Amino acid sequence: MSVNALYTDLSGYYDLMCIDIDYQAQSHAIRRLHLIFGNGGTTHLDLACGTGPHVRHFIDFGYASSGLDINQPMLDIAATRCPEAHFTLQDMSDFKAIESQDLVTCFLYSIHYNGGIEKLNACISSVHCALKSGGIFCFNAVDKDKIDNGLSVKHSAKQENDLFTFRSGWHYSGQGEKQSLRLSIEKANAEGTQLWNDEHPMVAVSFAELSALLAPHFEVHVFEHNYEKIIPWDNASGNAIFVCVKK
């Protein structure tokens, strides 16, 4: 099953799949970084916004927030959750913002959904064009050279009479610009069990390579992947938050 087919079929379960994510803490942390590094403006665009939970928090913070995604069923849910926001069906590797933005975000490692280095570079250029002077681009990323193929995460959640079990983990062959997110979703109830397996192709990049792609467009600051404290990246961990100020 393709990436888009899986998420289209299960778009109604997406929030359940992400039930253990603290959207409020993530949004608040990026808001703090925006207050420190930003230009004082409040226009915001969320790339790969999914069903809009981060957009909801930024609207509640007082931002004029909007989102884009490649999946229309996700955007339909987002529009219900955030009727004040404007959502568009666009690919983040080649998008156009309706108006210039003070803040562009990309949460949940979604920056890696750019299918290769060329598309990632095009996304960075699109973000640069979308931002106002002094605007910032915030996202989280994983370093390909620090991926442990043996690690995965798992959680379960109930919805009515169904028990869902979600598993996911990064995989990188050790060479090239492709990595993958391996995902399985199990749905069990009295009638039986259904299982979906998928492997999402994603761009693989080291933090050194990523910083080099960003440097022509942005002043780059890298922080530990910690949404409770603002801590400079230790140059060792494989997950980080990037804060990029438009030059």
Give structural attributes.
Rossmann fold; 4-stranded antiparallel beta sheet; about 250 residues; disordered N terminus; S-adenosyl-L-methionine-dependent methyltransferases; 11 strands; globular; 7-stranded mixed beta sheet; alpha/beta; 2 domains; about 25% helix
The CATH topology of the largest domain comes to: Rossmann fold
Number of domains: 2
Overall CATH architecture of the largest domain:
3-Layer(aba) Sandwich
Instruction: Write down the overall geometry.
Output: globular
Number of helices: 7
Instruction: Count the E strands.
Output: 11
Mean pLDDT: 93
Q: What is the helical fraction, as a range of percent?
A: 25-40%
Question: What is the helix/strand order?
Answer: HHHEHEHEEHEEEEEHEE
The CATH superfamily of the largest domain is Vaccinia Virus protein VP39
Q: Provide the β-strand percentage band.
A: 35-45%
Poorly predicted segments = 1-6
As laid out across the biggest beta sheet, the strand order is 3-2-1-4-5-11-10
Tell me the distance between the termini: 41 Å
CATH top level of the largest domain is Alpha Beta
Report on the structure:
It holds the Pfam family Methyltransf_25. One of its GO terms (biological process) is methylation. By secondary structure, the chain is of the alpha/beta class. It has two domains: 12-144 and 204-246, Rossmann fold (3-Layer(aba) Sandwich), CATH 3.40.50.150; 146-202, S-adenosyl-L-methionine-dependent methyltransferases, CATH 2.20.130. It is 27% helix and 36% strand. It has helices at residues 3-9, 14-17, 23-37, 53-60, 72-81, 117-130, 207-214; strands at 43-47, 64-69, 86-89, 101-106, 131-142, 153-159, 162-172, 178-189, 192-203, 218-224, 239-246. The protein has a seven-stranded mixed sheet, with helices on both faces. A four-stranded antiparallel sheet has the order 6-7-8-9, with no helix packed on it. It is globular and about 55 Å long. The model is unreliable at 1-6 (pLDDT under 50).
